Amino acid sequence: MTRVLPHVAIDGPAASGKTTVGRSVARRLGFLYLDTGAMYRALAHLALRNEIDLDNQHALLRLLEQYPVRVELDAESASGYRVFAGERELGPELTSSEVTAAVSIVAAHPLVREKMVEQQRTIASRGPVVMAGRDIGSVVLPDAPFKVYLTASLPARVERRRAELQAKGIDVDVHRLAQELAERDALDQTRPTSPLRVAPGAVEIDSSSLSADDVTDEIVRRVKSAATA
Ligand code: DC
After folding, report:
1. Is 182 domain-assigned?
2. Is residue 140 part of a domain?
3. Could you give the 3-state DSSP secondary structure of residue 83?
4. pLDDT score recorded for residue 4
């Protein structure tokens, strides 16, 4: 019999609030947290640094053999996890605009996904975790007892991302930002392997007019009532 661990799967489009909400849901429930996008970002970073063609899946796999992308869940760290490529720990480079522009191309390769999913399932087998991404409820943890599809309108997501970047001192053109988010969503939703979609059994939450605290409260309440049902 498979042991059902209390996992929470959170999927949704770019900038829908998965990271902020996922981390605080994990803290409130005493679970660990993993943003799986960071693993694809780590590979995109490696590919750019080593001048590897983003469309060449086999070259990307060789790169992964040379510099394995590994994550360690760590409730004490700011993000909730640490990402390594080979021996090197990665940080701010994961969210650079170059990596953000490249990551959906890297993440579309089926064999790359196989490697990442294998590691994500191993991590989940060790204990309770909140995992955020695009295919968590549909592919990585289809038996997760609680699944959320977190979404928000494009203007709301653009505004959140703009505010986030501005807080880091980065000024952006909102029209360009909207175009980038829409392009990334389209690539993630239309790829043949594990496209972003609402997983069977997922609760859909539109956070366009909700604060991160409201969304966190809602998810924690639902997880707790599902656990006692
Ligand atoms: O959530 P994010 O923006 O950090 O994700 C970066 C990219 O990685 C995103 O464009 C889609 C991809 N991704 C994915 O395909 N599957 C996941 N489970 C997580 C992210």
Report:
1. yes
2. yes
3. strand
4. 55
Residue 151 lies in a domain: yes
- Residue 55 burial (10 A CB sphere; 0-12, 13-18, 19+): exposed
What pLDDT digit, counting tens, does each position of 99-123 carry? 999 999 999 999 999 999 999 999 9
In this model, does residue 226 exceed pLDDT 90?
no
Which of 104, 149, 164 best tests ligand 1's pocket when mutated (most atoms within 8 Å of CB)? 104
Q: Is residue 154 part of a domain?
A: yes
**Ligand 1 pocket, 104 CB below 6 A?**
yes
The residue range of the domain holding 171 is 8-224
Dihedrals phi, psi of 207, to nearest 5 degrees: -95, 15
CATH number of 94's domain: 3.40.50.300
Q: Is 40 in the pocket of ligand 1 (CB under 6 A)?
A: yes
How far, in Å, CA of 120 to CA of 229, rounded?
28
Between 228 and 48, residue with greater pLDDT: 48
- Residues with Cβ < 8 Å from 191, sequence gap 6 or more? 104, 107, 108
Q: Looking at the 3D structure of the chain, how many domains does it have?
A: 1
Q: Is the pTM value of this prediction over 0.90?
A: yes
